[in-house]
Amino acid sequence: MFWSIAPLVLACIVLAGLAGTCSFRPGGMSAGPVPSYDAVAALNADAQTMGFPVRLPQLPEGWQPNSGSRDSITDGRSDPSGQRLRAVTSRVGYISPTGMYVSLTQSNADEAALVTAINPGLHPTGTEDVDGTRWVVYQGDGEPVWTTRLAGTGGSAQLAITGAAGAEQFRVLAAATQSQPPLPTSR
Asked: Is domain 39-178 classified as CATH 3.40.190?
């Protein structure tokens, strides 16, 4: 049985190698270049269209934005009458100087809805004070989330930080974001 399947397996391996869908690295994995992402342009555009205050973190040397996205959360926020409405999110991912990934999500969502959208397996476990701003720490299954609500001209925004980075990198991103005023809007 084995000898009848062996040529087929060998042919599949050769085809996969030729097609570039697999690779063999005897020395193990190596870090490639970090993709580039224009966080300044993306967050300025989000400030114009999202309808809540968006901040541009002023990060120290060595932090590199590498990804970003917009999304929405069904029933993610409540209006003053209590009606549930769709919330929107703006996310930018960064590689810290230590090479770890950390992301900042800014939203008009309620705290619980935003944390659940990021990772539904988390629960609040405490708080962290970052230069006088209280961040609620959520932990559980997966990466932790730190979140806070910041007020600004045009309303308030719920911010959330998550990723594989450690608490020190979370603190740096939190401080770099909360210390900035909201970006200007055309409204």
From this structure: no
What is the domain partition of the chain in residue ranges?
A: 39-178
C-alpha dist (Å) from residue 97 to 25, 63, 85, 172: 26, 6, 38, 11
Element (H, E) at 130: strand 122-130
The SS3 call for residue 90 is: strand
pLDDT in tens, 116-147: 999 999 999 999 999 999 999 999 999 999 99
176 token code pair: 């770099």
Write out pLDDT tens, residues 68-105. Answer: 999 999 999 999 899 999 999 999 999 999 999 999 99
Contacts of 17 (CB under 8 A, 6+ apart): 23, 24
- Type and span of the H or E element at 12: helix 2-19
Whether pTM > 0.85 for this model: the answer is no
Distance in angstroms (rounded) separating the CA atoms of residues 41 and 56:
10
